[in-house]
């Protein structure tokens, strides 16, 4: 098993029996892109674009946006780069578009909902992404944050297509989207599960509240139930489904996510080698057994212990 892990090196992610899982990185914009290449990602699973918009009085222009996206695309050659459109509001307020007086910002006009108030902002961003994609080799996908319904997914894809972007998917961060995942997936090109917000909304627990960490634990079986629903729904619609929340960076939980049917994992670059090595030590059938054990546990702590014990046994 140790040899398999070492042999996993920097190649593509796969289980010990050869089931492929795309291992991608999450980027926030200001990283050193040459260092990230060293962990051998299959591409970028989540490019958070807020870095371009936060802490400034107005919207960056098309040329400035295009240049920033192009810089990332160029660093990833012919690989996949999933660009998330602006996730404004709640924990990421924008001076020029987020209302300062929302009584409940996490449940307010945030993520894709911002396009209700400022549709031009999204269209200009999509145009800038499309312009950058044209000038690069990267396979550029776009995705929208905070999507709740199939209609929102369909509307987002229509706007992306109108801008010239062929692949458009949505994040599953709201329980309603997980519950109706097959219809949401049918309305767009792929799903990407954001476990940070999905945990927040499933447990009605503010993700910024340190005192609620036990509820926000990504090992919580109720959260894993929603991941399973999202993966099953995407599978039924014949669409890929990734995880790009913090859950994907835990080498043990990554096995559970793969066992639940997730087809790609996107994480902080530093976490990628350990996740790759962990996958290389287990078969897909192992991963499915670990997923079943996690779902059968009473709580997050129980799921973690059950999976750790079983995984050690299986190696
Ligand atoms: C998430 O919610 O899991 C996610 C990946 O998005 P962010 O952390 O940027 O809200
Ligand atoms: Mg989120």
From TrEMBL:
Full-sequence portion shown in this chain: 246 to 560 of 565
Assigned protein family: Belongs to the PEP-utilizing enzyme family.
Record-given protein name: Phosphoenolpyruvate-protein phosphotransferase
EC number: 2.7.3.9
MF terms in GO: kinase activity; metal ion binding; phosphoenolpyruvate-protein phosphotransferase activity
Reactions the enzyme catalyzes: L-histidyl-[protein] + phosphoenolpyruvate = N(pros)-phospho-L-histidyl-[protein] + pyruvate
Gene Ontology BP term (one): phosphoenolpyruvate-dependent sugar phosphotransferase system
Localization annotation: Cytoplasm
Domain of life: Bacteria
Keywords: Cytoplasm, Kinase, Magnesium, Metal-binding, Phosphotransferase system, Pyruvate, Sugar transport, Transferase, Transport
Binding-site residues, Mg(2+): 173, 197
């Amino acid at each position: 098993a140790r040899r398999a892990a070492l042999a996993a090196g920097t190649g593509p992610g796969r289980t010990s029996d050869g089931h492929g899982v795309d291992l991608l990185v999450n980027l926030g914009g200001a990283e050193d892109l040459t260092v990230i290449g060293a962990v051998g990602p299959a591409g970028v699973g989540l490019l958070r674009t807020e870095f371009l918009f936060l802490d400034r009085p107005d919207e960056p222009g098309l040329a400035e946006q295009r240049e920033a996206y192009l810089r990332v695309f160029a660093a990833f050659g012919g690989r996949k780069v999933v660009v998330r459109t602006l996730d404004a509001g709640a924990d990421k307020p924008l001076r020029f578009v987020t209302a300062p007086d929302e009584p409940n910002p996490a449940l307010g006009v945030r993520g894709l909902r911002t396009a209700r108030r400022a549709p031009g902002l999204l269209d200009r961003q999509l145009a800038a992404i499309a312009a950058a994609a044209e000038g690069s080799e990267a396979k550029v996908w776009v995705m929208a944050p905070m999507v709740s319904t199939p209609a929102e997914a369909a509307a987002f894809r229509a706007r992306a297509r109108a801008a010239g972007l062929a692949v458009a998917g949505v994040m599953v961060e709201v329980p309603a989207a997980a519950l109706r995942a097959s219809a949401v997936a049918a309305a767009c090109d792929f799903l990407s599960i954001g476990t940070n917000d999905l945990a927040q909304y499933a447990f009605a627990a503010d993700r910024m509240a340190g005192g609620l960490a036990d509820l926000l634990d990504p090992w919580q079986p109720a959260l894993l139930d929603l991941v399973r629903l999202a993966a099953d729904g995407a599978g039924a619609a014949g669409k890929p489904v990734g995880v790009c929340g913090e859950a994907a960076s835990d080498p043990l939980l990554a096995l559970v996510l793969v066992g639940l049917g997730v087809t790609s994992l996107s994480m902080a670059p530093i976490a990628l080698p350990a996740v790759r090595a962990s996958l290389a030590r287990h078969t897909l059938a192992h991963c499915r057994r670990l997923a079943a054990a996690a779902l059968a546990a009473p709580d997050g702590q129980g799921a973690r212990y059950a999976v750790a014990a079983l995984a050690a046994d299986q190696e």
